[in-house]
Amino acid sequence: MPPTAAARSTAIGPVPLGTAALALGLAHAACFSTRHGWWLQLLVLATLFALVRAPHPRPVARAAMAGFMFGLGSFCAGIGWLYISMHRYGGLAAPLAAAAVVLLSAYLSLYGAAALALAQRFAPAGRGVAAELASIGALAACWTLGELARGWVFTGFPWLSLAYAQPDGPLAIIAAGIGAYGLGGVVVAVAAALASIASWRARGGASVAIACGVVAAIVLALAGVGIAGASAIGATGPVVSVRLLQGNVEQGMKFDPQRALKAMNDYTDDILAGEAQLTVLPETAWTTTWRGTPPAIRDRMFSHLARTGGWVAIGLPEHASGPRQASAGMLANSVVVRGPDGEVRGRYDKRHLVPFGEYVPPAFGWFVRMMDIPLGEFARGEPHQPPVEVGGQAFAFDICYEDLFPGLLREQVRDGATVLVNISNIAWFGDSHALGQHLNISRLRAIELGRPLLRATNTGMTASIDPSGRVLAALPPLTRGALDIEVRGATGLTPYARFGHWPAGGFAVALLLALGVRRRPAARKS
Question: Would the pTM of this model clear 0.85, i.e. be above it?
Answer without folding.
Answer: yes
